[in-house]
Design a protein that fits this description.
Oligomer: single chain
Strand order of the largest sheet: 3-2-1-4-6-5
Largest sheet: 6 strands, mixed
Radius of gyration: 20 Å
Order of helices and strands: EEEHHEEHHEHEEEHHHHHEHEH
């Protein structure tokens, strides 16, 4: 009998939902929220009832009986660092999502909504591979300052999903492969996967590695310190420059690589140079993670929205193809990845983890 799942993936101005039977998508919807709607609420948690109502209203409109679901799955939020896996939304996990133990983000609502709806209909609620997945080997935590250890906040859900997809297609256990996985979206993260763990990663959230469409990446720290103490900017303004207004936004005023490519193709020399600089930095990150794996890389796996650009992939292959063969999975099917995580537990392929 097929397992029917409701998948909830909240973003800052939208809530994506998907309804699956096993891995078959019955329907998905992106529910948009205007700035005016969101601004009514002082905290992320206060948005819960508003978002829940639009989800249940949509299901009613689709004639989808809430009681027909076997499991409810939410996007994981900014919890404490945890290993990869599918986690039951326990009371402790729920509390840390509510208080935002590592920060307030709309994704915190995923587990909160999953637990509330799951409890109402008497089915399990899970989260899968949240951004705080942390499997770093001890020596990867050294930053150069005792007070500032390197952390692991990255695109864990999509990185793990495409790594396991490649392993399945290659007919090998994920745990047996040595992979460099590259996620290129609004943020960029490059991870070294070994023995089924991401043993090192350029942490997209912490300003590590390549710049991206919206993030500054690893900027020169001495110059950043001077900027912070120049008196020209508040802490909030500096943070916005690094995350949100950095990267392509800073250089070109757009976070859309397709727009950058269009400008470059029309003769905009600055756009062409910024794009090449972006690709150089991503390639350097790939090379660094190959060194983490002692140069023994079975495959480089490229994913994320920017991976739709054939010229982007071609340039990365040109720079890095000598390291290992390259497989490309454009986009990020997060709804399916969440459904698959729950299925592995429901089908007994994996044990559910406790927070």
């Amino acid at each position: 009998m097929a397992i029917k799942s409701l998948i909830i993936n909240p973003g800052s101005t939208s809530t994506k939902i998907g309804v699956f039977e096993d891995e078959n998508l019955l329907f998905e919807e992106t529910l948009r929220h205007s700035t005016e709607e969101i601004s009514k609420y002082d905290t992320i948690f206060e948005q819960k009832d508003f978002r829940k109502k639009i989800i249940t209203d949509l299901l009613a409109e689709k004639n989808c009986d809430l009681k027909s679901f076997n499991v409810i799955v939410g996007r994981g939020g900014l919890l404490k660092p945890i290993p990869s896996g599918t986690y039951a939304v326990t009371d402790d996990l729920l509390e840390d999502l509510k208080v935002g133990v590592q920060g307030q983000h709309a994704s915190n609502l995923g587990g909160i909504l999953a637990r509330e709806i799951g409890d109402e209909i008497g089915v399990p609620s899970y989260i899968v591979d949240p951004v705080v997945v942390d499997e770093l080997m001890p020596i990867a935590r050294y930053s150069g300052l005792e007070e500032i250890p390197r952390g692991s906040i990255f695109h864990a859900l999509n990185q793990k999903a495409v790594a396991k997809r490649y392993a399945k297609e290659a007919g090998k256990p994920y745990e047996s492969l040595r992979l460099v996985v590259v996620h290129m979206g609004g943020g960029v993260s490059v991870g070294a996967h070994e023995d089924g763990k991401v043993v090192d990663v350029f942490s997209a959230f912490d300003g590590d590695g390549a710049f991206s469409p919206e993030r500054a990446g690893g900027v020169p720290c001495a110059a950043l310190v001077k900027m912070c103490f120049s008196g020209k900017y508040t802490e909030k303004e500096i943070s916005a420059k690094l995350i949100g207004k950095g990267g392509l936004n800073s250089y070109l005023g757009t976070n859309d690589m397709r727009e950058v490519t269009r400008r470059a193709n029309e003769g905009d020399a600055k756009a062409a140079e910024v794009k090449q600089a972006f690709l150089l930095q991503v390639a350097k990150d790939i090379g660094a993670m190959a060194c983490v794996l002692n140069g023994k890389v079975d495959q480089i796996v490229i994913t994320g929205g920017i991976a739709y650009g054939e010229d982007v992939v071609a340039k990365l292959k040109e720079r890095c193809g000598w390291i290992a063969p390259v497989t490309v999975y454009p986009g990020e099917d997060e709804l399916l990845a969440l459904a698959q995580g729950a299925l592995r537990v429901m089908n007994g392929e994996e044990q559910v983890k406790q927070y």
